[in-house]
Structure formats: structure tokens, C-alpha cells
Design a protein that fits this description.
The protein has 84 residues and is mainly α. The chain is 64% helix and 5% strand. The protein has one domain. The protein contains 4 helices and 2 strands; from the N terminus they run βααααβ.
Amino acid sequence: MIRMTDAKVVAGELRSRYEHARAVTLMGRTMQKALFGGRPDEVVFWALVYAHYCGGDLSPTVDKQIDAFGPSILRDLLDPDPPK
């Protein structure tokens, strides 16, 4: 289960603790390890972290794409319902 809140928190921590180049490198390396390690849920988590790191909230288009992973992603309780 992937929690959107966790992705936002990790993105915020990366933004506050590291310079941009270092944060992006860390996210990329971690995502690559998950990808080649056969852990798709971690790949999706780090992709969400990266999206939140780069732009804050996700666009409606990205929200629609995330709906494909619906059962695996727990959305924030404070967020409005995802687009249908």
C-alpha cells in the first residue's frame, strides 16, 4: 500500500535537506534499485515522491493516470475525491 501523504513528506524532507542535484540523484538511484529489484510498488512510490518534489500537488492528468493503480495507492484523506 502506497500512501500519498508519505510521498509528500519524503519529497519535503528531500527538498529541505539536500541541494536539488543531490536530491534528484538520490531519488533516481533509489527508483532504479527498486526497478531492477522487481519492486513495482517502490518504483511507483518514488515516482510519486519525484512528482511531488518537482511540482507540489499533482495535476488532474496525473491523478487520472494514478487511478490505474487505484487499489495500491491510499490517497490523502483531506484531498478531494479523485477525478472519475
